[in-house]
Amino acid sequence: MFKRYSVVTNLVCSGWMEPQPTRGLQYAEAGGVLIGVLFASVVAGLGIGWLAGSAGIGILIGAVIGFPLAVYTVYSRYRNIF
Known about the structure:
Largest sheet: none
Helix content: 55-70%
Order of helices and strands: HHH
Number of helices: 3
Structural class: mainly alpha
């Protein structure tokens, strides 16, 4: 059966005419990235410190290196939003 309004409906409701959603700052996502990178750095420091003979020092060094790394990762991911 022929639909006489299908061309008009498809033109009006086409996907390219819909407004594109803007991606705002996702606070939970930014916090997750921050915590994830910091945790990964601490775990890597733990592993290296454990192999070197001092797990506590490795955790400390991993945290000291991981905090600026995590902040830079969040900044580089969301720098176009500000």
